[in-house]
Amino acid sequence: MSKSEEFLTKEEESAIVEAIRVAEKETSGEIRVHIEKTTSKVPFDRALEVFHELKMDETHLKNGVLIYLAVADKKFVICGDQGINEVVPVDFWDSTKDIMATQFKTGNFKQGLIDGIVKAGEQLRHHFPYEEGDTNELSNEISKG
User: Fold this and answer.
1) Closest to 64 in 3D by CA, of 143, 133, 8, 128
2) For residue 11, with 0-12 CB atoms within 10 Å meaning exposed, 13-18 middle and 19 or more buried, which class applies?
3) Which of helix, strand or coil describes residue 77?
4) CA-to-CA distance for 66 and 77, rounded, in angstroms?
5) What is the pLDDT, as a whole number, of residue 3?
6) Contact 107/7 with Cβ under 8 angstroms?
7) Which of 22, 30, 56, 63 has the most CB atoms lying inside 10 A of its own CB?
């Protein structure tokens, strides 16, 4: 089993997927979590690559958010698409990462991810509220590499 598969229990993964579902319930925005063991690339560059692989750049309103983790490297990145990046405060992703890192430092990875999902979901709901006919454009499942 790889480090990315051992990182979270099935119950923790289920709680994270549920947090994504709840966060997306009142917005047209999309949130994904991607976990992999390591990357040979700059983590931000790899996160952007995953962002495109998961077709997060194809959402109708350009409001996808990816939380990327390279477990063995102890690195994580949050990537927002153009639509969300244009409307959140300049320090939003950094402040979200800080909240997550506080949980990560104590080994509470599930709660750190949920905290980041909730914070992103609040901004998505504020700037991209759910409208009649909005569909869930992307899977809520955690992707792994």
Assistant:
1) 128
2) exposed
3) strand
4) 8
5) 52
6) no
7) 30
The DSSP annotation for 3-37 comes to HHHHSS-HHHHHHHHHHHHHHHTTBS-EEEEEEES
Tokens found for residue 1 = 């089993």
**Rounded-to-integer distance, Cα 87 and Cα 31, Å:** 16
Do residues 67 and 33 touch, judged by C-beta distance below 8 A?
A: yes
- Enclosing H/E stretch for 68: strand 64-70
pLDDT in tens, 51-75: 999 999 999 999 999 999 999 999 9
Residues found in the chain: 145
- Beta strand pairing status for 64-70 and 143-144? unpaired
Helix, strand, coil percentages in the chain from 3-state DSSP, rounded to 5: 50, 15, 35
Give the tokens for residue 114. Answer: 């949920």
Mean pLDDT of 77-81: 97
Supply the DSSP string of 79-125, one letter for each residue: EE-HHHHTTS-TTHHHHHHHHHHHHHHTT-HHHHHHHHHHHHHHHHH
